[in-house]
Structures are given as C-alpha cells and as structure tokens.
Amino acid sequence: MKQLGSFSRLAGVAALCALVANLSLAAAETGKAEITGIKGSVTVDGQAVKVGDAIKPGQQISTGAASKLDLFLGENGPTLVVDANASVTFDELSFDKSGAEPVITTKINVKAGKVAGYVKKTSSQSKYVIQTPTTTAAIRGTKYQVTEDGTVAVWEGSVSVTYRGNTYEVSEGQKFDPSIGAVVANDLPNPLPSQVSSTATSALGGTVLITPTRPNPGASEIQPGQ
Fold this sequence. Notes:
Elements: H1 2-27, E1 29-30, E2 33-39, E3 42-44, E4 47-48, E5 54-55, E6 60-63, E7 68-72, E8 78-82, E9 87-96, E10 103-112, E11 114-119, E12 127-131, E13 135-147, E14 152-163, E15 166-171, E16 174-177, E17 182-185, E18 199-201, E19 207-209
Parallel strand pairs: 10-12
Antiparallel strand pairs: 1-9, 2-5, 2-7, 3-4, 3-6, 6-9, 7-8, 8-11, 9-10, 11-13, 12-13, 13-14, 14-15, 14-16, 16-17, 18-19
C-alpha cells in the first residue's frame, strides 16, 4: 500500500510538471520581423519582398550588392538592419509575458554579410544572441553591428563575445577584432542614424513611400536611387 501511495504521489507530481510545461509553451508567442525599408535587391526564401511583409523564424534573408533591409522586430528588437551581400536567418523569435517579467528570446544567424541593430533593455532571463561562423555575441540594451567574420562593434551598452573558447566584454565605443583576438577602439561609422526612412527602392523596382506604423528608432536612412 505504501508503494502504491508513493507511486500515486509521483504520478501526481509528473502530471503537475507536465501541466506547468504545457502552460509555459502556451504562454510563449512567436515574434516576427516586419519589413519597414528596402533598398536594392532583397529576397526571402528566394522570393522578392515588399515593405509591410513579415519574415518568420527559419526563413532565409538574402541581400544583393549595394542593398539593405530595415526590419522592425517589436518585442524582439525593435530595430535590425541587414546590410549588402548578406545571408541571415532568425533561428528564434519568441516572447512570454505570462510571468512577473517578460522573457524575450531572439536568436539570429549571420552566415554572410553584417547586421546592425538597436536592442531595448530586457529582463535578466531574456536572450538576444547573434551567431556567426566564428563568434557568438550576447547582446543586451545595445546599439551594435556584427559581421560574419566575427567583428562586433558597439555604440551603446555592451556585448559579450565568445570567440575560440574565450569571452570578451565589448563596451560602448569599442569593437572586438577577431583578426587579433582583442577588444580595441571602435573606429567604424555608426550604421544606425536616428531618422526613419521616408522612401525606399523596392525589390521589384521603383520607389515606394513608407509610412511606418511601428516605432523604429535607429533605422537606416534609405533614399531613392541610392
């Protein structure tokens, strides 16, 4: 009888754990990246896109030469700029507001090219990670730029960079240089001007007017004919 009682208690605990796990999964929502500006040639999974389209986790972003893509990530950003000749995917975009503090998870894979962004401050349990072929950059409350070769530049906040088993803290006004494996002064131009684009060149050709319906601080300026 004691064994049956113990079994019942264990079964009850297992059922409770399963219920909590299911509630956690149900509470988490999948984010998306909304296109707010396009310059030049930009495709998602090989298809041309336009302002207002949403990019989901797992889709492949590709930009051509002299091209650029502005994205609004909402809870997971808010701002991301994908530069020319880039190949980028979102491995995860999710947020969970069911707890005492929101838990926001953003995972970006930069296979080629570079990305820059503005990340608002989030809870201690949240994660914003950019993976390149050589480095992992953990970002929190930061204006940054990450390049496929592992270069990480910071204009505000700080980024924790893992490279070849070592971790480097990159603060405001600094960059991590993988060619020497060290943190040095940031001599790169800030890719995140404060004004939002008013016009852009679409992937299908021609000029389109952008009237942003989302706040997009720090987005790149994309002018017609550039």
